[in-house]
Amino acid sequence: MDCRLDGQVALVTGASSGIGTGVARGLAAAGAAVIVNYHSGREPAEALVAEIEGQGGRAVAVQADVSDPDAVAALFARGAEAMGAIDIVVANSGIQKDAPATELTVEDWRKVIDTNLTGQFLCAQAGIRQFLKQRDRKLSRALGKIIHMSSVHEVIPWAGHVNYAASKGGIALMMRTLAQEMAGQRIRINAIAPGAIATRINAENVAGEAGKRLLELIPYGRVGDVEDIANAAVWLASDMSDYVVGTTITVDGGMCLYPGFRDNG
Ligand code: NAD
């Protein structure tokens, strides 16, 4: 058995940039057709579709705001219509709107929770409904697979980012509850918790002096790249991980190992 996904269809949210693009590429390389969701990045989404098609794969770009229930329903309907089915959902979209707790506006609290937590719930719900509706396609041991994009900040508190940390902490128990609820239907739901990955969401943190300070938090000594996350996503989507249910795979170069205790315990 290997990490192949031939014949399966994956929907990846926020796939016009960063981790989402990397995951979409990885799933396509493993043989999946890809529904490339984008919010505002139409051009990069269409370029990604052309790239996948140029390598002999199948892909389609579909715009949607994942925090809008009607838009999510339309995304899944259009995606399933274009590709014939949906077998894998990667709920990846996420944003940061950082501020000290005393300054944070309720609008920025809500925006982050709406996108990161409610948006990921709506995509999981739509995916589960789709898997149950289309029944067993006999392409995988599971009826369907959902992968939530969490963060090391589902466990590491993060001063100045209370909305983001709350959204990711919420994803952890949402994912485990959905996994418990759906496992009996052979729907596998898991999460990936990336550490510091070089994308635009943290462009200011990975370069220069800030980048040097960041490396002190990463025992493995390098910032991650999107392929590190894509590899975990392909494995979680494949039958290689068929007995993995309700687990968060941490992909962080050891960031969650409390490196501050190495010389100070
Ligand atoms: P990114 O900013 O490149 O990607 C976020 C994507 O989400 C973008 O494509 C954006 O258009 C999309 N998006 C934003 N609002 C949306 C909405 N309402 N509807 C649909 N899509 C929307 O950053 P990234 O680093 O690739 O982040 C991807 C995910 O990984 C996020 O959930 C983020 O929290 C998580 N993550 C990233 C890191 C990191 O170090 N880069 C670490 C931990 C977790």
TrEMBL record:
Protein name: Glucose 1-dehydrogenase
UniProt keyword annotations, A-Z: Oxidoreductase
Enzyme class: oxidoreductase
Organism annotation: Roseomonas gilardii
Keyword Oxidoreductase: yes
EC number(s) given by UniProt: 1.1.1.47
PROSITE patterns: ADH_SHORT
Residues in Ketoreductase domain copies: 8-200
InterPro entries: KR_dom, NAD(P)-bd_dom_sf, Sc_DH/Rdtase_CS, SDR_fam
Record family assignment: Belongs to the short-chain dehydrogenases/reductases (SDR) family.
